[in-house]
């Protein structure tokens, strides 16, 4: 059982909610059966230490596109679209840092340097975000992403207090990763391409090295039917060759 936060960490500022509120949020994280309840608890944890905005992003691994990212945020809807757009997500300096590091840092306007990043920051600023705490997230199956607690109140006092909260927020991040797993797995399972039973059967023989002609003999059907199904498989997986389809099907765990 996790220790109560007030047993180990002292609050820097009495204006924020008492520790019992974040303890309650952590308990809600662990107990949340629904995704909406889980994220509400995570956002409550952020608010309890003075951050109005919470964003949790986990990029898919194993062959899925960045457009399929798991994104939950209480920012403006445009922020969710930003991180579900592979092009803009790849230019985001926050995600770039989070995917390459493990340490928590403060982020601000100074992080957005390149022209494309400056355009991105204007969207972030228009959503009411000025700065925040960035916590890298590294999940199972090569998934990486970030947890960001953000604020529009950019003052030196607020930043000093945020620095004092990094250890606590790191603990929140660890709890969020652990409790997010069932919700994340359900989400990514829901967006995986779906094979028909016949397509699964053909794909299994294909990755075993059988040709379309050999598969047609094994399954007692015409070679043209096998080629038809292979073409459908390539379309579902977004690849140009059946060899690439076999590799991607294995990466995505579609062949049981």
Relevant terms:
Beta-Lactamase, 256 residues, Arc Repressor Mutant, subunit A, Sig_transdc_resp-reg_C-effctor, five-stranded antiparallel sheet, transcription, alpha+beta
Helix/strand order, N-terminal first: HHEEHHHEHEEHHHHHH
In the CATH hierarchy, the third-tier topology of the largest domain is known as Beta-Lactamase
Overall pLDDT, averaged? 83
**Quantity of strands, as a count:** 5
The computed structural class is: alpha+beta
What's the arrangement of strands in the largest beta sheet?
Answer: 2-1-5-4-3
Radius of gyration: 23 Å
Overall form: elongated
By CATH reckoning, the class of the largest domain would read Alpha Beta
Total count of helical runs of at least 4 residues: 12
Structural domain count: 2
Report how far apart the termini are: 36 Å
Q: Per DSSP, what share of the residues sits in E-state strands of 2 or more residues? A: 5-15%
Low-confidence stretches: 1-19
Summarize the biggest pleated sheet. 5 strands, antiparallel
Helix content: 40-55%
Report the CATH architecture of the largest domain.
2-Layer Sandwich
CATH H level, superfamily name of the largest domain: Transcription factor LuxR-like, autoinducer-binding domain
Organism: Trinickia dabaoshanensis
GO molecular function: DNA binding
GO biological process, one term: regulation of DNA-templated transcription
Domain HTH luxR-type: 188-253
């Amino acid at each position: 059982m996790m220790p109560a936060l007030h047993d180990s960490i002292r609050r820097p500022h009495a204006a924020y909610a008492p520790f019992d509120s974040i303890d309650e949020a952590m308990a809600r994280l662990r107990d949340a059966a629904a995704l909406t309840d889980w994220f509400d608890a995570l956002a409550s944890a952020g608010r309890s230490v003075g951050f109005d905005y919470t964003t949790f992003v986990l990029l898919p691994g194993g062959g899925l596109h960045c457009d399929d990212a798991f994104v939950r945020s209480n920012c403006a809807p445009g922020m969710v679209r930003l991180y579900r757009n592979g092009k803009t997500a790849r230019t985001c300096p926050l995600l770039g840092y989070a995917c390459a590091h493990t340490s928590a840092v403060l982020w601000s306007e100074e992080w957005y340097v390149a022209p494309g990043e400056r355009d991105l920051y204007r969207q972030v600023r228009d959503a009411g975000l000025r700065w925040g705490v960035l916590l890298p997230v590294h999940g199972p199956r090569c998934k990486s992403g970030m947890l960001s607690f953000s604020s529009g109140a950019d003052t030196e006092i607020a930043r000093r207090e945020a620095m004092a909260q990094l250890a606590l927020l790191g603990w929140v991040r660890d709890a969020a990763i652990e409790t997010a797993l069932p919700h994340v797995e359900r989400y990514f399972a829901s967006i995986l391409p779906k094979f028909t039973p016949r397509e699964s059967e053909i794909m299994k023989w294909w990755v075993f090295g059988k040709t379309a002609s050999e598969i047609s003999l094994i399954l007692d059907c015409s070679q043209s039917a096998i080629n038809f199904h292979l073409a459908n498989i390539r379309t579902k997986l977004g690849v140009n060759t059946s060899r690439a389809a076999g590799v991607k099907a294995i990466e995505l765990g579609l062949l049981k």
